[in-house]
Write a structure and sequence with these properties.
Length: 118
């Protein structure tokens, strides 16, 4: 089962995640993720830098273990002036869409309050 927890910086997603998933080992990358492995990936932005989206989708879709991915909402709708920052924000947004689509559960945390979206 894949759970994606996201929210703005310092909005409580780390505390939410640690309350429910504390025993999960932290994984720095999904490149070495073994099928059926359970773990926690934080922050999710590392996924955007780590793998092309199609490869990331394959790995996440084939995972049969418990995986928790914690993401920070970047940008909050603000479009960066710098083209590189804008491209990065767009790529992370596409990454989050992909993670949400393959996740069994998606939770938004804002102001310390969790809201299950999926």
């Amino acid at each position: 089962m894949i759970t994606f927890v996201f929210g703005g910086l310092y909005q409580g997603q780390e505390e939410y995640m640690e309350t429910l998933y504390k025993p999960y080992p932290r994984l720095e990358t999904v490149r070495s993720l073994k099928v059926g492995e359970r773990g926690l990936i934080f922050p999710a932005e590392v996924l955007a830098k780590d793998l092309p989206l199609d490869k990331l989708g394959e790995i996440l879709a084939s995972n049969k273990g418990d995986l928790v991915i914690v993401g920070r909402d970047i940008g909050a709708g603000v479009v960066p002036i710098d083209p590189e920052e804008r491209a990065y924000r767009d790529h992370v947004g596409r990454c989050y869409q992909l993670i949400s689509s393959v996740s069994d559960r998606v939770v938004r945390v804002s102001m310390g309050i969790s809201e299950v979206l999926k």
